[in-house]
Design goal:
- By secondary structure, the chain is of the alpha+beta class.
- It contains 9 helices and 8 strands.
- The longest helix is centred in the C-terminal third of the chain and has 22 residues.
- It starts with a helix and ends in a 6-residue tail after the last helix.
- 40% of the residues are buried.
- Pfam families: Aldolase_II.
């Protein structure tokens, strides 16, 4: 029995304690954590995915101490923009809280960008590598051309001070993706599916660039007019919203793999 207890963290259900809208947000947020883990973009228990609670000045974020692959809808902590914990489950022998750096980054965006529902931040090796290159992300593949005008935020140390929030928001601007210099990647979306789509494609772009640059041979250049046209084809005003088609399919995949994310 003790051995099994170490394998699975038993968490009391939050379903009957929240609104249906919040419960759905919890399911989508937990699913996103599982997907980030599934695609190899997690950093153990570091980093964060946050989702706005519908109709409230609050968001859901991971308890600091749980792995991405074990995240569930009930496990998430509800926090207001000022950092006050509004709701969390009984974690048994553990009294998980939230990570300070995660709160500073995510509350900044949720507080300033009310049209956005989801924020994802990662420390993947491709993301960290590209964030450390002076050239940054190059629009060298069709996938990367979507991010031809990606935002950048200079490294100021571990993000613990709220005075950095203003600069984070200013640097993000109206983009849905930002490279945190010498740090990692950040994507946002009007839905969880939209933010995850941006992250998945940005991660692929970083991997492709590292692979190509590692060959130590000149990169093939695409004419600027083609770059500009391709970038425009990826913009929200000329296509359906990202995530609309693939998010239900991703949830079906999770249901086949392990449906416990929705508990």
């Amino acid at each position: 029995m003790l051995e099994n207890a170490r394998k699975v963290l038993r968490i009391s259900s939050m379903r009957e304690q929240v609104t249906p809208a919040e419960w759905q947000a919890r399911i989508d947020c937990a699913a996103c954590y599982r997907l980030v883990a599934h695609y190899g973009m997690a950093d153990m228990m570091a980093n964060h995915i946050s989702v706005r609670v519908p109709g409230e000045e609050a968001f859901l974020i991971n308890p600091y101490g749980m792995m991405y692959e074990e995240m569930t809808a009930s496990a998430l902590i509800k926090v207001d923009i000022d950092g006050n914990i509004l709701g969390k489950p009984d974690y048994g022998d553990f009294d998980f809280g939230i990570n300070r750096a995660g709160y500073v980054i995510h509350s900044a965006i949720h507080g300033a960008k009310h049209e956005l529902d989801c924020v994802i931040h990662t420390h993947t090796w491709p993301g960290m590598a590209i964030s450390s290159l002076e050239c940054g992300l190059l629009p060298m593949t069709q996938t990367a051309m979507r991010f031809a005008r990606i935002s950048y935020h200079e490294y100021e140390g571990v993000v613990l001070n709220t005075d950095e929030q203003t600069r984070l928001i200013a640097n993000l601007g109206d983009n849905n993706a930002m490279i945190l210099r010498n740090h990692g990647l950040l994507t946002v979306g009007r839905t969880v599916g939209e933010a995850f789509n941006a992250l998945h494609r940005l991660e692929l772009s970083c991997k492709a660039q590292i692979a190509a640059m590692s060959c130590n041979t000149p990169l093939h250049q695409v004419p600027q007019a083609v770059l500009d046209a391709t970038y425009q084809n990826y913009q929200p005003n000329v296509r359906r919203p990202y995530g609309v088609m693939e998010w239900p399919a991703l949830l079906r995949m999770l249901d086949r793999l392990d449906p416990s994310y929705a508990d």
